[in-house]
Amino acid sequence: MDTAQTLLLNQGFEPIKVISWQRAITLLFLGKVEVLEEYGRGVKSVNLIIKVPAVVRLLRSFRRHARPVKFSRVNIYARDGYKCQYCGRKAAISELTYDHVKPRSQGGKTEWTNIVTCCYQCNRKKGGRTPREASMALLAQPTQPNWVPAVAIRISLRSVPDAWRDYLYWTGDLSEDADDGP
Fold first, then answer.
1. Which long-range contacts (CB under 8 A, 24 or more apart) does 101-106 make?
2. Any alpha helices (H) in the chain, and if so which ranges?
3. Contact criterion met (CB below 8 Å) for 134 and 126
4. Which of 24, 128, 165, 174 could form a disulfide with 53 if both were Cys (CB 3.0 to 4.6 A apart)?
């Protein structure tokens, strides 16, 4: 029971994130969410029994605070569409790395405007040279995004509670023997 989690949806029934069932009950008592789905188990107090929420929806819209997008490998991949910025091949995260457009050996910095998604083959071909020196063209100039490229909730198909299935967007086959993701 302590490990039960709740799927939090926005007003438009889109998944936002996974929260603890305790947080979901707190939001319920604060009048901030409505319960759409429940688990079979309940939490007992002296006066009442509350079913553990499986899926809750926010009753009001909220604005995310405008914070700069965190510089990270995954956010670089998302910004570039999981596509090598030299050959254009789309690949899984395990087949990608990142590349300094201006190599560090030439004073290039590790920042949004100097890092691009790259496949290992193009990374080896480019080596410690600039794209011009390696006769390789960039598909797009790297920029710092001012928005999070995508909100993704990564969960294993095997661990998805049945109550969540109608509220998640699937990009692959829903068979029980499916992989854990891209």
1. 101/130, 101/131, 101/138, 101/142, 102/130, 103/128, 103/129, 103/130, 106/130
2. 21-29, 73-79, 120-126
3. yes
4. 24
DSSP reduced 3-state for 51: strand
pLDDT tens profile 51-69? 999 999 999 987 666 677 8
Please tell me whether residue 64 adopts helix, strand or coil conformation: coil
Alpha carbon 69 to its chain's center = 13
Place of tokens 């309940």: 42
Residue with tokens 């405008």: 66
> So where are the chain's domains?
5-64+151-167, 73-126
User: Please, what's the largest Cα pairwise distance for the chain?
Assistant: 74
Whole-model pTM: value is 0.53
| Architecture of the CATH domain 73-126 | Orthogonal Bundle (1.10)
Going by C-alpha positions, the residue among 164, 48, 10 that lies closest to residue 25 is: 48
Closest CA relative to residue 15, chosen from 57, 67, 61:
57
pLDDT tens digits for 134-181? 999 999 999 998 876 555 556 666 677 878 877 776 544 444 444 444
